[in-house]
Design brief:
Layout (H helix, E strand, L loop, with lengths): L6 H9 L3 H10 L2 H7 L5 H8 L4 H10 L2 H10 L2 H10 L2 H10 L2 H10 L2 H11 L6 H4 L6 E3 L4 H11 L8 E5 L5 E6 H6 L19 E2 L4 H11 L3 E5 L5 E6 H19 L14 H27 L2 H6 L2 H4 L1 H24 L8 H30 L3 H4 L1 H26 L9 H27 L1
Parallel strand pairs: 1-2, 4-5
Antiparallel strand pairs: 2-3, 5-6
Helix pairs in contact: 3-5, 4-6, 7-9, 8-10, 14-15, 16-23, 19-22, 19-23, 20-22, 22-23
Amino acid sequence: MINTLYLPELREMLELSDVDGLREFCTALHPARTAEFMEGLTATEAWSVLQAADPATRVEIFGYLDREKQIEVFETCDPESVSTLIADMPADDRVDLLNAVDEEVARNLLSLVPADKRRDIQRLQAYPEGTAGAVMTTEVARLPESLTVREALQELSRIAENLETIYYIYIVDENNHLRGAVSARRLVTHLNKPKMPITELMERNLVTVEATDDQEAVAAKVADYDFLAIPVVDHEQHLVGIITHDDVIDVLQREATEDAYLAGAVGPLEEGYLSIPWFEFTRHRAPWLAILFGGAIITILALKSYHETIDKVAWLVLFLPLIVSCGGNSGSQSATLIIRALTTKEITPASWWAVVWRELLIGLALGLFLGAIGYAIGCFVAPSFAAALIIPITLILVVTCGTMVGSLLPLLFARLGWDPALMSAPFVTVIVDILGIVVYMNVALLMLRELS
């Protein structure tokens, strides 16, 4: 059976030029499973296997190969045959891959692609990275508004093979202005009224996005409305493409991955963990660690400025890790919650006043809770019950400062148009650590002065 094939058998078929066997291999299973069996093949071998498949199957299987192998096929295999694959691929997928390969290779491949496909690729490449235009596909099911139900279904059956999705059919006027949309299901259910104009069936109040809109905002809109696809228009309402749900999933995954890296103070990575050389990983991590290292140096300088107080009251040092960790942890919690709320659009920078009051109350409550525990421990270490009050007072102030800093800094970054995830937990922790030391030492100085 085909599903028991291993690499040696695949390579044997390649050596024997067993086209029939390779064709059966390509068609017997789901394209994703076929791609899995090809994982151990080189790019050249994988391309030779795909050559045995029909163009549609070839595109499907190729789409499931890992990204590195796809790029290697583009860069190392016969340009003439690869260019035919490019012409058959979904518009957005081929643009993404051509942007990822060597520039000279991309230019060479592009020159071999049919002129109409080449113009489409160049048009999509003109959109800036991160915009709706950069992730949309131009292969849209569009019909003129003058058609009847019967004519629309006839036209749809003619063009459907070359389209990524036909669930939504977009209705345009003679100048390609978007007028409405109708589902394929709605058209089919009105087969008993073949002469009915499709304008009577279409939905006119469409939710659209512009090609220059940020892709993350577009993805959020598709998720909010639970669309399978969303039309993309230009500033004059010409229909230029659609963004499908699978592209939205890719965008959300990339954004979530980037935020996860930033939350750990790591520069965004374009490839998988094992695909990146160790020195490249070092390059991504070193700048962020250097910034955090600089923050730690400021912490040392803050401590140094209070060395006389520490020398006189040595027991204060015992509680220093507890103070700074409580402040840093509370700040990190708040930063994580606010960054998440900003990402899901639950709050905006304009909500800062509500956030201030909420985090102030939370900070005070958490500070009182931790302060009570800290005082109980301090009573066993401090020279007196009164001196032990330094611990709870400091914890209340530091935890409250932590929640305020952790919540307001991401809001400030969002207000400035920066990614709030940049103000990640490690950076908030460094800032709150410095504040914690300053607050702790000043509270100690004031309390000890009053008690002396």
